[in-house]
Write a structure and sequence with these properties.
The protein is an alpha/beta fold. Helices cover 31% and strands 24% of the residues. The chain has 7 helices and 10 strands. The protein starts with 21 loop residues before the first strand and ends in a 16-residue tail after the last strand. The relative contact order is 0.20. Bound molecules: adenosine-5'-triphosphate and magnesium ion.
Length: 256
């Protein structure tokens, strides 16, 4: 059963994937951390639905909660309240092992801080998820992916021997490796020059278009955000659609 978004009719839906199944659904998602004498609310009551095959940009100022939201949506962190459903599975109801399995099989994540394994070469970093997933030719596939992100000449470099932008591209190749059905990317072009950023944007959009990968990206890159089918704003932990349209709130059963 699909819930419609409240206020959906006033949002331009020209770029949306019509009537696709829901890939990602967050309900009243909130995150707080306890400080010494206080509780800091980082994210409050976020509701969203993203359909399979959509591309969504999350934009907002530094410190507004974008990375926090992405981590919760991908099941990397546990929310203080609310729920996330990813491809029909309620993440919080899964054990840690089940969550790890779900991520390994269906989710790609490009971290803002890359999180490459420092002792492994670029090639080995990309091969790792392929080997864990039982891919039949991990090295061939990893070489191909690194060549696609322009790093065919840097296969044997470790992260320390790579520039920030090169590390970012290894992280992107690694996230693509397992052919995820949903790819979360935190500032995927953040460390790249215009030309390389454009090439990575092309790659992300091609993945979305050709393989139907659902893309959820945090970005400050206006060009990349504009290429996404939908944009969400986050300000001081509150999520909204642009143009004054509130973020979707779940409808009561009677109004579905
Ligand atoms: N574990 C934590 N403990 C305390 N504060 C935290 C914690 N994690 C995040 N924060 C705070 O929550 C806010 C949101 O952090 P978050 O990393 O989600 O921001 P962001 O929008 O991704 O910012 P940026 O664009 O700089 O990456 C920040 O003010 C940050 O300092
Ligand atoms: Mg961030």
């Amino acid at each position: 059963m699909f819930h419609r978004f409240a206020g959906e009719s006033v949002i331009d839906q020209s770029n949306r994937v019509p009537d696709g199944p829901i890939m990602l659904k967050a309900t009243d998602l909130g995150h707080q951390v306890d400080l010494d004498n206080d509780t800091l609310t980082i994210l409050q009551g976020a509701n969203l639905e993203i359909k399979r095959g959509e591309s969504v940009a999350i934009v907002g100022r530094s410190g507004s909660g974008k990375t926090t939201l992405l981590g919760l949506l991908a099941g990397l962190d546990t929310p203080s309240h609310g729920t996330v459903e990813l491809d029909g599975a309620q993440i919080s109801a899964l054990s840690e092992d089940e969550r790890a399995q779900l991520r390994a099989q269906r989710v790609g994540f490009v971290f803002q801080s890359f999180q490459l394994l420092p002792a492994l070469t670029a090639l080995e970093n990309v091969m790792l998820p392929l080997e864990l997933g039982g891919h039949e030719a991990p090295e061939t596939k990893a070489r191909e992916l690194l060549t696609r992100v322009g790093l065919g000449e840097r296969l044997t470099h470790t992260p320390r021997q790579l520039s920030g932008g090169e590390q970012q591209r290894v992280a992107i190749a690694r996230a693509f490796a397992a052919d995820p059905i949903v790819l979360f990317a935190d500032e995927p072009t953040g460390n790249l020059d215009n030309h390389t950023g454009q090439a990575i944007s092309d790659l992300l959009m091609a993945l979305n278009r050709e393989q139907g990968t659902t893309l959820v990206m945090v970005t400050h890159d206006e060009h990349l955000a504009a290429r996404c089918g939908r944009q969400l704003n986050i300000e001081a932990g509150e999520l909204s659609e642009p143009d004054g349209v509130s973020a979707p709130t779940p409808l009561k059963e009677s109004s579905v």
